[in-house]
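Q: Got a minute? One more chain.
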Amino acid sequence: MSKSTSYSSSSGPGTQLDWQSEDAGQGSKAASKNAKATNVGGQPHRIVIVGGGAAGIELATRLGDRFRKGTQAGVTLVDAAMAHLWKPMLHEVAAGSLDPGKYELNYLEHAHRHGFRYHFGAMVGLDRTAKMLRLSATYDHDQREISPSRLLPYDTLVIAIGSRANDFGIPGVIANAYPLENTSQAVRFNQKLIHACLRAQTQDQPLRPGQLHIVVVGAGATGTELVAELHHTMRQIVSRGLDRIDPERDIQITLMDSAERILPALPERISKKAHQLLSGLDVNVRTNARVTEVSELGLKLSNGTFIAAEMVVWAAGVKGAPVLQQLDGLEVTRTNQLVVEPTLQTPRDPDIFAIGDCAACPIQGQTFLVPPRAQAAHQQAEHMLGQIERRLKRKPLLPFEYKDFGSLVSLGAHGTVGKLMKRTAGSGIFIEGFLAKWAYSSLRVMHERSLHGIFGSLLRVLVRIISRYVGPRVKLH
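A: Always. Here it is, folded:
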């Protein structure tokens, strides 16, 4: 099902941070032993995974557990953040209905528990001949250097850096709209939301047009789920003593998309049901609406209409990160995603793989690509585990086969709708209500189970259930 959801040159077990540059000679030797299980001198095969999202962290965890002893292979995870949060939860963080601290997974601690290495930094370049990954320097909030720019050798490289929203070159999007691509961006928007309400409560002058209006551009799963959460959390915030704000009069939430309906990638029945639920919440749903400019005060549409809104969230489209164009000639698509073969290898370098949203992977027997969904990331991580094991044994690699297990959309406390797919192609069961809500919640537990095991995931669920009754229902700071 989907929710339509950094260092040492040695490769032994355990976790280590090493801020020194790697010996480029090691990468050259590795290049001459393409796809071998061990390097010259019997060194373990160096597996480097870039990106600790849903696909990357699951693959690193499974590989770390498998090669914990470090004699056959060593596993390294590289990420520009210090912690992992499952991306389908970002809309809840942005709305304030979820405290990220209760769900985040610290890379350094997780690496220690599962026998792989973690390196803090962002991928900024690649030398495919020397088989060296280039990492950026990292800095703290005072702009003091934490780690210098450096090189990291690899024998097998797996790129799993996810995707970002597509601004389509529309003026003002980057400067005036809030993306939801990572935890820090979601937290930043949530703070903007709270501050806007506090400002409206204490200012002397009347509210400006659009002051407490929110427009979410992009009616995919993230945008649709976000507006439902915002409807609930905005009223929760106001109920905490902000009596000068009338939710029905002052707060307006708009969901906008250029497509003919919301959730255009999902079955029409799910789209209609979600639209119906949002209309019941007085969410203003606008389809066939194309944005031409975003300013500090609102949005301009192609038909000349101006919508006043001082808070705009951009959740439209999917494209790859700019760094994917700087990877020593690896091929990318028009949306800047890495082109991969059915084996998940890049066509121009069989030692480099790509999985998750950053990969343009064809669906076998179809002209479509694997969709950017959480279930696809999970399936590719699972397949990649087998690919690496076959690669180390010098066996032929297998093509990836995507299986659509269905789609679920949660509108928070207001309902959940979805479709569970049967084994027969094109068939499925439409679900809603308690069953759909339970199935949606199970997606998060399944992801945690892949990282912590059955006992660890159940323990985390129990802790959060208990904390729900002793803490605030909405994050207010």
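A: Residues 434-468 form the longest helix (35 residues).
Q: Perfect, thanks.
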